[in-house]
Amino acid sequence: MQRRKVMLAAIASAVIALSPGVAMPMQQEPPSPPKPTAPSDSTKVFVTKSGKKYHKKSCKHISGSASEITLGEAKKRGMSACSDCGGA
Predict the structure, then answer these.
(1) What tens digit of pLDDT does each residue of 37-66 get?
(2) Res. 17: pLDDT tops 60
(3) Is 54 helix (H, G, I), strand (E, B) or coil?
(4) For strand 80-81 and strand 53-54, is the pairing parallel, antiparallel, or unpaired?
(5) Is the Cα torsion angle 36, 41, 47, 50 positive or negative in sign?
(6) Mean pLDDT of the 11-34 span
(7) 3-state DSSP call for residue 74?
(8) Residues facing residue 80 across a β-bridge
(9) Is 31 helix (H, G, I), strand (E, B) or coil?
(10) Distance, CA of 23 to CA of 38 (rounded, Å)
(11) pLDDT at residue 18 above 60?
(12) Of the candidates 16, 29, 33, 53, which lies 20 to 30 Å from 8 by C-alpha distance?
């Protein structure tokens, strides 16, 4: 019985098994992208005294008078996310 040497090579995310005179493609699934996680109720958001929306710290709609609260508190107050920054 003769042993064949098999060599694996990764080419453009495909794996090919090479043997003398024979190339055998093998299926390989590409890695899945990480799933985004939803912000938790402890995530910090920013609100103004008179506003009904919560914002990210970098949002253009908040001013120097914005207060930092948790996302959970903003939801308890009936606030919704800013449509420009997404809020959290």
Answers:
(1) 777 888 999 998 888 999 998 999 887 788
(2) no
(3) strand
(4) parallel
(5) positive
(6) 63
(7) helix
(8) 53
(9) coil
(10) 45
(11) no
(12) 33
